Amino acid sequence: MINGKKIVVVLPAYNAALTLKRTYDEIPFDIVDEVVLVDDCSKDNTVEVAKSIGIHHVISHEKNKGYGGNQKTCYDKALSIGADIVIMLHPDYQYTPKLIHSMSYAIANELYPAMFGSRILGKGALKGGMPMYKYIFNRFLTLSQNILINQKLSEYHTGYRAFSKDILTTINYHANSDDFVFDNQMISQIFYAGFEIGEITCPTKYFPEASSINFRRSMKYGMGVLGTSFTHFFNKIGLAKSDIYKTKK
Fold it and tell me: d(Cα 141, Cα 148) in Å, to the nearest integer?
């Protein structure tokens, strides 16, 4: 805990058996209270590895629900066990758990209600091996999103995120897609609801075991991202009314 706030790390997992232990071993348990792993019908022994290394909250989807669907289960479980701060960390070891301290303290001390680990601040992305086409794609989408949403994030596409309980109990993340565009819909909801997002420089690693989507899926994701940004823009100026912006409170 920090300042009496319970910290829960959630791991949305799919075929993460080879990297899960390396990720778990770097989680700072001096402040982290609980770890939740949601396995999205992996084809390897992710669940067995999770239980063997001591993760108590292991949930297995009977069928693959997609990246967004996995996160919905993660956040639901974290809230059900009393989380005040939720860290979403990929178990493929692409992002270092060593930033959990910094991200958690920023939220616990009420500097920001959400913190993102940015691969773009500094030179983390290309230095870590991000393919050039993905870097260019990232920069184009982020520029477009900042213009349409009227924000100044360095990156909308990082998978390393921390949220306060207030955010997760306000935005209706269940209304979002079960696919990869879930992440960007969630950012749109956060800003639409009036919350701010802080960022911290995050080194990243690209290697064979790290998860990544192919070019075709990347293109589909990009179109979804732009669609989300236009939806946000049109809702803000009153020309549309989307259910994803209906809050729980």
Answer: 11
Extended strands (E) in 55-120? 57-60, 85-88, 114-118
Other beta carbons less than 10 A from residue 5's beta carbon: 18
Rounded to whole angstroms, what are the CA distances from 242 to 30, 46, 163, 192, 221? Answer: 41, 37, 23, 11, 20
For 173-190, the DSSP string reads GGGS-SSTTHHHHHHHHH
Match domain 7-245 to its CATH number in 3.40.50.150, 3.90.550.10, 3.30.70.141, 3.40.50.300.
Answer: 3.90.550.10
pTM beyond cutoff 0.85: yes
Strands 34-39 and 114-118 turn out to be unpaired
Sheet holding 197-201, edge to edge: 57-60, 34-39, 7-13, 85-88, 161-164, 114-118, 197-201
User: pLDDT tens digits for 134-183?
Assistant: 788 889 999 999 999 999 999 999 999 999 999 999 999 999 999 999 99
